[in-house]
Amino acid sequence: MCRLFLWLAGTLALGWVVQAAESVDLSHSRWTRLLATHVKNGEVDYAALKAAPQDLQAYLDSLAAVTRPEFDAWPEADQIAFLLNLYNAATLKLVADHYPVKSIKDIGGLFGNPWKLKVVRLWDRLITLDDVEHGTLRADYQEPRIHFALVCAARSCPPLRSEAYVGQRLNAQLQDQGRIFLADRAKNRVDPAGQTLWLSPIFKWFQEDFTANGKTVAEFVLPFLPAAEISGVSPKDFKVRYTDYDWSLNRR
């Protein structure tokens, strides 16, 4: 009788967890609607978000309601997509709350750091944007392409995608983000004559992520570059230099 009771209790508990996990919108449809409305060509209408913050707040509330056991039960791709969307949505809210500002770096005071402000609610904790990026995404997953998707509200960031990241399409979305980012000549370009790859400082700041699999930075980025620019060349042919980073706000 005791074993039967424990089995029933365990089954009911497992069923509750599965049901709770299934109730989470892993399509992130609310976030896609927000992005489609307020983002165009990677630029954000922060004034509109500030004037009507309720939809963005509601989306962040829905993410904050997810428990750690629910999150841990998801496939890895769904976990990464969730954290990418959380980071980008929390960044937009942080900027909208302080708008108008010329740069996200203006938030937090003269000696403050916006990425170290506790503005993100996750798993019953209040954490920072750095905690999401460095303490969770970079620490727990071997996925360097997250740097094509995380957007820090600056013009030199990769462009903010006009749709949510979703686990079922995450690989294709990250590949597409890489191609879009590497095709932006203001941030990344090829100089065949000078045998130089001019890359975003992102590839310098997070070099250890891009080279963790034994590749050089040049070897990592070449598949994302326009085919016409790299036809017949080897990564060994190029030296890497870095472009300037524009921290002005990615606003419309």
Q: What does this 3D model show about the protein?
A:
- The protein is mainly alpha-helical and 252 residues long.
- The chain has one domain.
- It is 47% helix and 10% strand.
- The protein has helices at residues 2-23, 29-38, 46-51, 54-64, 68-72, 76-98, 129-140, 170-182, 202-205, 207-210, 217-221, 227-230, and strands at residues 39-40, 43-44, 118-122, 125-128, 189-191, 196-199, 239-242.
- The protein has a three-stranded mixed sheet.
- The longest helix has 23 residues, at 76-98.
N- to C-terminal separation? 66 Å
Number of domains: 1
Query: What's the count of strands?
Result: 7
Structural class: mainly alpha
Secondary-structure element sequence? Answer: HHEEHHHHEEHHEEHHHHE
Report the sheet with the most strands, covering strand number, pairing sense and barrel closure.
Answer: 3 strands, mixed
Helicity range of the residues? 40-55%
